[in-house]
Design a protein that fits this description.
Elements lengths: L5 H11 L2 E7 L16 E6 L5 H9 L17 E6 L3 E5 L10 H16 L4 E9 L6 H13 L3 E6 L7 H12 L10 E2 L8 H13 L1
Parallel strand pairs: 2-4, 2-5, 5-6, 6-7
Antiparallel strand pairs: 1-3, 3-4
């Protein structure tokens, strides 16, 4: 007999169930042309290029190629919308920061990200991914500041914890930084796509973020 709690079973069933690609958006004006399932709350995943976002999304859904994994930063070039069993919409967002693309392309991506984050009523929570090997960078702070100003709730996820040299110090530093941020959830989530650590907890956090 399984010891899983009902809520944990529900979160797992959502992420491991049907997952349908709805649309890829490269220009914010395209949003008005897409027929999104009515009434579904959205959660977004955003982070610096090469933070491990695609690997994390694949781990959450237990799929190998839902989100493209690459060692080349900047592979996600649009907002990708996925319908998880008609329970919630998951949005894979372009990486920000040091992606090896032209300044014009990087500016266009940043505009797409920030415009979406500021003006999407269905967006309930953004999961901001931070590389546990390096901690918060200026670009992470910029995104968090924008989310604070917009009043968009967000939760911080540490990635690649299996490779972190001093995870406890990074956790303490990020936790302290979040105390000063109005829209930040006070709990951080430590995850590893390689080992599976923290994945179940993150599934539950995603469900909790749209259930309140």
């Amino acid at each position: 007999m399984s010891d899983d709690k009902p809520a944990e079973k529900s979160a797992r069933s959502i992420f491991l169930g049907n997952c349908d690609f709805i649309a890829g958006v490269q220009d914010i004006d395209q949003m008005d042309e897409i027929e999104f399932p009515e009434g579904l709350p959205e959660i977004g995943f955003v982070g610096r290029s090469n933070v491990g976002k695609s690997s994390l999304i694949n781990a959450l859904t237990n799929r190998n190629a839902l989100a493209r994994v690459s060692h080349t930063p900047g592979r996600t070039q649009q907002l990708n919308f996925f319908n998880l069993g008609n329970r919630l919409m998951m949005v894979d967002m372009p990486g920000y920061g040091f992606a090896k693309v032209s300044k014009g392309m990087r500016k266009a991506w940043d505009h797409l990200i920030f415009t979406y984050l500021r003006g999407r009523p269905a967006l309930r929570c953004v999961f901001v991914l931070v590389d546990s090997r390096h901690g918060m960078k200026d670009s992470d702070v910029e995104v968090m500041t924008m989310l604070d100003k917009a009043g968009v709730s967000y939760r911080v996820v540490l990635t690649k914890t299996d490779k972190a040299e001093d995870l406890d110090a990074i956790k303490a530093s990020v936790t302290e930084a979040l105390k000063k941020r109005a829209a930040a959830f006070p709990v951080i989530y430590a995850t590893s796509s390689e080992t599976g650590d923290g994945i179940e907890e993150l599934r539950q956090a995603a469900l909790d973020s749209v259930s309140g």
